[in-house]
Specification:
Blueprint lengths: L2 H14 L12 E7 L8 E7 L4 E10 L6 E14 L3 E16 L3 E18 L2 E15 L5 E6 L2 H4 E5 L1
Antiparallel strand pairs: 1-2, 1-9, 2-3, 3-4, 4-5, 5-6, 6-7, 7-8, 7-9
Length: 164
């Protein structure tokens, strides 16, 4: 089964079950989980803290120490909830990351990854503390060469967060 078909099935399943999902008040809740949304595609440990009803702080760290091909990233961001719908949170925000990558040809390179995003986070009725997030937007990466890129991350790549 090809990768496109798997991603399409995930989107269809997410939209099909959205009628049984709901948004919830997240003020003063801390979440931990996984993300993968920087330009070097490094799976990362992530944290989200909802400081108020409409604002959240995000952060993350990822590392891969593969010999001659190491990568790492450290990011911080801010989310502002635009719509608090019954079945999801629709948000906008930004993220900045310090990214390092190494390869045998170019050696070690360090740069920044800055993103402006729109995204959603939704919750299933029986999994009230687990948020599934996907994001899209525009990013600027300055590692080795500067480039502007569009961002379109599916739920399993953009984030799965467990809230306490």
């Amino acid at each position: 089964m090809n990768k496109f078909l798997i991603i399409a099935m995930i989107y269809i399943a997410a939209f099909a079950v959205s009628s049984v999902s709901f948004g919830k008040e997240m003020t003063h809740r801390l979440g931990v989980g996984i993300k993968d949304n920087t330009s070097e595609s490094i799976p990362s440990l992530a944290v989200v803290y909802h400081a108020g009803p409409g604002m959240a702080f995000t952060g993350g760290f990822g590392i891969d120490t593969k010999k001659n091909y190491s990568t790492s990233q450290l990011n911080a961001g801010l989310r502002y909830v635009i719509f608090h719908e019954p079945n999801l949170h629709f948000f906008t925000g930004g993220q900045a990351a310090l990214v390092t990558e190494e390869n045998p040809v170019d050696g070690k390179n360090t740069g920044f990854d800055v993103q402006l995003i729109l995204g959603t986070e939704f919750f299933f009725a029986q999994l009230e503390n687990v948020g599934f997030t996907f994001e899209g937007g525009l990013g600027l990466s300055t590692i080795k060469d500067s480039r502007v890129r569009t961002i379109a991350d599916h739920p399993l790549k953009a984030g799965i967060i467990f809230y306490f």
